[in-house]
């Protein structure tokens, strides 16, 4: 009996998370994003792919990197990009999220990029609009384009994802970046570890198929990738660790701890960084080991790739 043919690429209407995506869909997104890297490094960065289409960036939480890269991605593909300021919007006057969705839907946008402080809010909004929706981060749930740009960075530096060992270190509990990366890396055949104090780990962390370490030197032993996470003090209520100084001593990335990883281990961080808290500034600036600025650069290419696939039918492609 013949099996059904594998779809040719990413075929969903929205990008709300990594959870549930098949490896071939992730591969398609990464390949398309990779094709935009050289374009973004060229003098003429603009293409007419999304000419005539409208992209609205709706950010309920501030984000310099993510919002700017989505804006650049849309403009470089010639979309009409609108940044909606939530602070001055009707949301602050008591309008519900569903009312906001219906209002925006009446304006006939083609793509809606949403960041929200509550987990699940972006998926709720997506059910009330006719356009494609991209999750730019929702609460402690997911941040799919960040995981995609991290994966693209690793793939370009290491040539592969399968078989690599990746240690995700720090504030895993509050990190949507960690969740999306654990899902993506596992789907693509990488081995994952989380390294954190018990107070900064979710209770269901073992469901992600990762190894768990509470000692950073042991957790970094022989890894290919060291992915540090920002300490999200704004999401914490109460004491999760004795002090920032003590946190860096135990879980901050120093040269001594990094020496336990492979000699060519790559250092990553989604930003913004707290230097001297989760990472030594000298390591962050080491162009031989750190890929932090490359992550920022590739974020634009990834978001261009996502916009391309989500508007495929609007542009008459299959």
Structural commentary:
- This protein has 318 residues and is of the alpha/beta class.
- The protein has 12 helices and 9 strands.
- The protein has helices at 23-34, 37-40, 64-76, 97-105, 121-126, 144-158, 176-187, 216-219, 244-251, 255-258, 281-284, 292-310; strands at residues 54-59, 80-85, 111-116, 132-138, 165-169, 191-195, 211-213, 225-228, 266-268.
- The strands form 2 sheets. A 5-stranded parallel sheet has the order 7-6-5-8-9. The chain has a 4-stranded parallel sheet with strand order 2-1-3-4.
- Strand 1, helix 3 and strand 2 (80-85) form a beta-alpha-beta unit.
- The longest helix has 19 residues, at 292-310.
- The chain is globular, with a radius of gyration of 20 Å.
- The model has no long low-confidence stretch (mean pLDDT 91).
Question: What keywords describe this structure?
Answer:
alpha/beta; four-stranded parallel β-sheet; 12 helices
Short recap of the structure:
By secondary structure, this protein is of the alpha/beta class.
Per-chain topology:
Blueprint: H1 23-34, H2 37-40, E1 54-59, H3 64-76, E2 80-85, H4 97-105, E3 111-116, H5 121-126, E4 132-138, H6 144-158, E5 165-169, H7 176-187, E6 191-195, E7 211-213, H8 216-219, E8 225-228, H9 244-251, H10 255-258, E9 266-268, H11 281-284, H12 292-310
Parallel strand pairs: 1-2, 1-3, 3-4, 5-6, 5-8, 6-7, 8-9
Helix pairs in contact: 1-6, 1-12, 3-12, 6-7, 6-12
